[in-house]
Amino acid sequence: MVSLAPSAAIGVLVVVIAVYALLYVRARRRGIQQGATRIARCSAGHLFTSTVIPGASFRAIRLGSSRYQHCPVGNHMALVSWVDPSTLTPEQRAAAAAVRDSRIP
Ligand SMILES: [Zn+2]
């Protein structure tokens, strides 16, 4: 087991908090809200909503701006990207809202 001196433990804690603060600011600048749901599209074109928590991906592998995760519409693994809702028709937004991925990011 690794034991850290109190000053080293505080240093690690400060670094972790700084990384999360940077991820939070970056996400806010990209318009991503904490714990928000966003519309996603898989590589096969399926639309669904998914939970976003910047810095946390327990069910997806992040690949830059895309994620490799389960698509609940097609029940398959696929590259998934966020979609700007303003680019969708009302029918597409309704279809995406009808299928919600797990609340776990
Ligand atoms: Zn799909």
- Which percent band covers the strand fraction? 25-35%
What is the H/E order?
A: HEEEEEH
Record field, number of beta strands: 5
Q: Summarize model confidence as the mean pLDDT.
A: 82
How big is the Rg? Answer: 17 Å
Helix tally equals 2
Name the structural class: alpha+beta
Small molecules in complex: zinc ion
Q: Gap between N and C termini, in Å?
A: 30 Å
Give the overall shape, derived from the CA principal axes. elongated
Strand order of the largest sheet: 2-1-5-4-3
Task: Kindly give the count of domains.
Answer: 2
Helix content: 25-40%
Uncertain stretches of 5 or more adjacent residues: none
Q: How would a crystallographer describe the biggest sheet?
A: 5 strands, antiparallel
Write structural notes for this entry:
With 105 residues, this protein is an alpha+beta fold. The protein folds into two domains: 1-31; 33-105, no CATH class. 31% of the residues lie in helices and 28% in strands. It has helices spanning 6-29, 90-98, and strands spanning 36-42, 47-52, 61-63, 66-71, 76-82. It has a five-stranded antiparallel sheet, covered by helices on one side. The protein is elongated and about 55 Å long. The chain starts with 5 loop residues before the first helix and ends in a 7-residue tail after the last helix. The mean pLDDT is 82. Zinc ion is lined by residues 42, 44, 46, 71, 73-74, 76, 78.
